[in-house]
Amino acid sequence: MTIPHTCYLGVDVGLTATKVAAFDVVGNELAVVHARTPRTSVTAHRHDVDMTVLADTVLSLLAEIGGKLAADGYAPAGIGVAAHGNGIYPVDGSLRPIGPAIASSDSRAQHIVQAIPPEGARRLARETGSIPWAAQPAVLLRWLRDAEPAAYAATRWVLSCKDWVTAQLTGVASADYSDASAFGMVGLDTRAYTPTALELVGLPAADLDRFPPLLRSDEVVAGLSAATAARTGLPEGLPVIAGCMDCVAATLGAGGRAPGDGTIIVGTWAINGVVVPARTPAPEVTLSAFMPDPATMLAMEVAPTSAANLEWLAGAGVPHQQTGGVAAAELLQEAATVPPGADGLLFLPFVIGSPEHPSASGTFLGISSNHRRGHLTRAVIEGVAQYHRVQIDRVLASGADVGDRPWRLAGGGARSTVWAQIFADVLGRPVRRQLTSELGARGVASLLPGALGHDVPPWTVNDEDDLCVRPGPDRAAYREHAQVFDRCLARMSAVWSEVERHPGRSA
Prior knowledge:
InterPro entries: ATPase_NBD (IPR043129), Carb_kinase_FGGY (IPR000577), Carb_kinase_FGGY_CS (IPR018483), FGGY_C (IPR018485), FGGY_Carb_Kinase (IPR050406), FGGY_N (IPR018484). The protein is of the alpha+beta class.
């Protein structure tokens, strides 16, 4: 009889794609399966998720990878889930969905945030390290109370995306410190839920009871339920840990663990974070999320302004109501033939909006008959890099203690040599490419050996110098490009507001 090899499963639910990956005991990727995340853009500002379809998607992927692993002689020892933070996944007492979930890219509740007094926002930031914004669970719970009071009354648990998936695996409602702290719901000094975010939006402190008990990211919630085991073919009782927010998981997967480590993740969301001590006063950033190491947290500037823009361009030429498009790799090859600045074409990367600019939309400026698809792509990836720079500048000015090591660059920007060079040139600092394909799944799976008491060495990443990209001769051009980008961005609010009032634009 052959004894199967041990492996660990990481689930990563992004706004665009859902992935399940398996890793061996030293962190090498063994297999990965993926599917599109069932997110629906109802309007420009309303982004829903069919919770049942999402759960079915994850279970199907687990069944698929379980079959692959069994055929290759591997047996999973546990499962960890990471997913996009914020948004709201409301369920009743039997863990049944209360209508669709609301994704973290949603901005329908912006008016609620705008009504919060500035001192109230500062109070939340001092207490939790996070500021109020439109897709926070507290803000969306208030929207639910106003717009759908029956759904609000029926909601027993307010879950994150990751907690919804974990509940489907185990039949248990849970929460972890990384997600809950990024909600602005956990005091940095108390490490307990605080009612401040609820109070700021006019909800009673009693609504804290709707949020599940807090667990460490590496704490076992429960074993895989019998029903889920039957659907996936995985063993009943397989340990499932609480998991963590995808920003934290991807940072772990990229090797960002020590104080001062900076990570840039080029995914659907732009994630720009630095590991800092978990204490007050917190750096003045948009989000702070506890790391699995209780002594540290991730101070972040984030927005849905990154690789989603390139994905939009890749599919923009497809006939209406059809899927598919040009491969991103093909677009990036074309962009490499275009000079810096895309021959005068500028792009503001807001195809799915921005919490900081509520009316923002994706915008090309300077387009002419001379521009071709390669110019469009170059402008898009330059615009994405420039807005990462805007956010990184805020992190650097926030009071965070940032080390002098190269920032880790992960996601689509790292896998493309031309895009990685643009990042180094735009930022004016070296970046180290992280080429592991499934960083979020790897990061959360890396918590499993310790959680299960397995005696294996900590997983490491490749930090070789040949992966380090330094600013090159185009740095001067991108310094000037940044000035134009910033001036245009500062003047666009009135234009975007006017477009927002266009009678053909859905609310």
